[in-house]
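Below is how a single chain appears once it has passed through the pipeline. First comes the sequence as given, then the structure the pipeline wrote out for it. We keep one example in the README because the format questions we get most often are answered faster by looking than by reading.
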Amino acid sequence: MYSFSQQTFNMVATTQQYLEPILVQELQKLGATDVLKHNRAVSFNGDLSVMYKANLCTRTALKILVPFTKFRARNERDLYEEIRRIDWENYLDVDGTLAVHTSLSTDFFNHSQFVSQKTKDAIVDRFRDKFNRRPSVDIVNPQLSITVHIVRDEVSISFDSSAESLHRRGYRTEQTLAPINEVTAAGMVMLTEWDGKGAFVDPMCGSGTILIEAALYAKNIAPGLFKKHFGFMHWKNFDKKLWQTLVDEAKAAIQETDTIFMGSDKTFKAIEIARANATRAGLDEDIKLSNKRFEEVKPPQGVAGLVVMNPPYGERLPIEEIGSFYKQIGDKLKQDFDGYTAWIISSNVDALKKVGLAASQRLTLFNGPLPCKYYKFELYKGSRRKPEKEKTEKE
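Resulting structure:
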């Protein structure tokens, strides 16, 4: 069982499927040890400093969990009794607040909300019996956020050091229809293995998330600097001095860059939203935005560049003749973006084939619940289309 007095301890960083290898690299750079990749998660060891840095600096983590205890339960009574016997008073004040979140992969319990409620009941009943008072529930900013994960009959209890998901950086208070998640956007940037230099272009930028995450990456700005609250700040072992030292170090590590960040969108409202988000991120002087249709966009000349785009898939944003639209994308890239490398994400694989260029790399990602392909196209003067043989092969 985890104790607040431990010097080093085990943690689990959750992430989106297919971003685990990127998160492994991030955690290793932060000094984590025994880093292991799992499905949508990475486990690692470290001290308080590593836990704080994982929340502050990782771009592809959603939550940093601290496994607390495990036990077996096959019914609500066993669950209740096992939860109630834990010394919760060592971790939570009698007048404090708590939140419980549950995920299930079991036949013994049917509803996650029911498990969350029984867990809360067991905790508050222990406090009521012991102190004649009880903590209350606060799902927004609790003193202790608890995660319950049940696989078959094994119940794992973790403390959520992040509380609010880390993808909610704090700069994006407005968004366009079908926005891309900040963690997805950061993962897309990092998967390109971009060196942060030259030009970065998103000609269908929407609310600007990909551009902003690219600029944060190039300037080495820790994404957690925008967040005011983390779950661990309410824990009894919160080291405020250590946290402030790490924040100061992160601010000192920010670097200037000559990179050109250029975004455009055909919708003026989208550009307004992107501009407001960039301003909140402190990047309004770095990111240049314009209200243009894709076919009107001209890339910066004289520099090597990267194009990353998230075009409509023809699902949540229906477009007539989606295949024709993707063909236009390929024609435009071939005509005006020679010397650039382009990456396109889409859930519409058939439409991606209509781009008409040979993909040098094909990755799989999720954009929200949608499984997507993320294709790399290396462009050069007179980029040739796919050979007829390749066109007919299943991708």
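The radius of gyration is 24 Å.

See the next section for the split statistics.
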